[in-house]
Amino acid sequence: MPCSRLLAATLGITIPVSAFAAAPGSDLPTPGSGEIVGFIGSLLVVIGSILAFGWLYSRFRPGMNQSSELIRLVAMRPIGPKEKLLVVEVAGEQLLVGVSANGMRTLHTLAEPVQKDAGETPADSRFAARLKGLLGEASK
Q: Taking the complete model, does pTM exceed 0.70, yes or no?
């Protein structure tokens, strides 16, 4: 019957709904509320599994969280929305690398290794210290 309903809709013919209705004594299954709840529960389990596996994959990506002692990022400075400068240490030698949307390029090989000053604090840690100070004042 569904094919005839589709054909009638395609041709623009209106057929009374009673023609498609099941006869009173027919054995056509009708979904009960238990079946609908089971279907929705199964759907939620499948969607939850997909989200959980996606989170686990991004969290424990193979090879991404292993630190390498051969290559180390010493410093990074953004100079534009998609451009930045990196100081990278490779096998004891430091390189100044430019990163842009077009790729990466070695700009300079540093003769003397760059060291961070003890007095210098990154902006993030200054923000964290300021936030701790404000929270400490608020709790008094």
A: no
